[in-house]
């Protein structure tokens, strides 16, 4: 893909810059919610499975100066773009991008090495919904090159004992997610439902599981995206702007977040 087919986008008021495909895969709000949800401690090693453009490693590195991160991505073109994004933001000393396939977890380097893992896996089964003719979109959205269980098993393999795996997934498939996590011997410990509006059904769930953890799931207060008039709630506006000052911004519903 030529550079003229990309956009260069500012994130968090220009704190981060991100090259993205103009017509292919582009990150959405669910990615920002996942980066905000995962528990991160000082000097930890974190892996992002299916890193795409490398946006989650960049966000976490910018927020947590002592952590180091690894992004794993299947598609060669996305790997190349993610590496350029790391260089663009001067993060080469703290972030590495590897080409790898979660379906072959044994081939991924770093077994038992990581303190935390994050994952925004494909949401849809191959026979559901419209399948994009573009590889970037199809692989990111549909389970054609890796199913939920593949991501859960890969995350579990890379984590040390008691390491954490954080995932964002459609609420309608929450049971699939909880089952896959348990089957991978990562016990769900935190769950937060995401709603487009207060009173609406949940559209996403954010779940954090612990490798080898004991049973006991905490249901956290719901995360509401929009107030009336499609204004972002203060919490979501703060996440989007990348700082903790209370803020309000006007949003537009994203078709890949909460089915809007």
Low-confidence stretches: 244-256
Q: What's the tally of helices? A: 7
Any idea what the radius of gyration is?
17 Å
Strand content: 25-35%
User: Element order, helices and strands?
Assistant: EEHEHEHEEHHEHEEEEH
Would you tell me which CATH topology applies? Answer: Rossmann fold
DSSP, total strands: 11
CATH architecture annotation: 3-Layer(aba) Sandwich
Largest sheet: 9 strands, mixed
- Note the overall shape: globular
Q: Please estimate the helix content.
A: 25-40%
Mean pLDDT: 88
Total domain count? 1
Q: Which structural class do the helices and strands define? A: alpha/beta
Task: Describe the structure in your own words.
Residues 244-256 have low confidence and may be disordered. The protein has helices at 29-37, 55-63, 76-88, 135-141, 148-158, 174-183, 234-241; strands at 6-11, 16-21, 45-49, 68-73, 95-99, 114-119, 159-170, 186-197, 202-211, 218-219, 223-226. A hairpin with a 4-residue loop joins β1 (6-11) and β2 (16-21). The strands form two sheets. Strands 3, 4, 5, 6, 7, 8, 9, 10 and 11 form a nine-stranded mixed β-sheet that branches. Strands 1-2 form a two-stranded antiparallel sheet. With 260 residues, it is an alpha/beta fold. The chain is globular and about 40 Å long.
């Amino acid at each position: 893909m030529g550079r003229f087919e990309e956009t260069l986008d500012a994130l968090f008021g220009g704190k981060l810059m991100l090259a993205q495909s103009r017509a292919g895969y582009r990150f959405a709000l669910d990615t920002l919610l996942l980066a905000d949800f995962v528990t991160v401690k000082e000097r930890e090693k974190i892996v992002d499975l299916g890193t795409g453009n490398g946006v989650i490693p960049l966000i976490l590195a910018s927020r947590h100066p002592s952590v180091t991160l690894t992004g794993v991505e299947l598609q060669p073109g996305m790997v190349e773009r993610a590496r350029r994004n790391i260089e663009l933001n001067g993060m080469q000393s703290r972030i590495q991008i590897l080409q790898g396939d979660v379906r072959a977890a044994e081939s991924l380097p770093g077994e038992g090495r990581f303190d935390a893992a994050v994952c925004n896996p494909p949401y849809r089964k191959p026979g559901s919904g419209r399948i994009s003719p573009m590889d970037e979109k199809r692989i990111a959205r549909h389970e054609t090159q890796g199913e939920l269980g593949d991501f859960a098993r890969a995350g579990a393999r890379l984590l040390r004992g008691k390491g954490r795996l954080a995932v964002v997934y459609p609420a309608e498939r929450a049971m699939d997610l909880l089952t896959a996590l348990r089957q991978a011997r990562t016990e769900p410990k935190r769950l937060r439902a995401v709603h487009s509006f207060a009173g609406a059904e949940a559209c996403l769930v954010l779940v954090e599981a612990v490798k080898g953890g004991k049973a006991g799931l905490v249901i956290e207060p719901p995360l509401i995206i929009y107030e009336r008039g499609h204004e972002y709630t203060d919490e979501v506006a703060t996440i989007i702007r990348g700082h903790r000052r209370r803020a309000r911004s006007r949003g537009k519903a994203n078709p890949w977040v909460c089915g809007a």
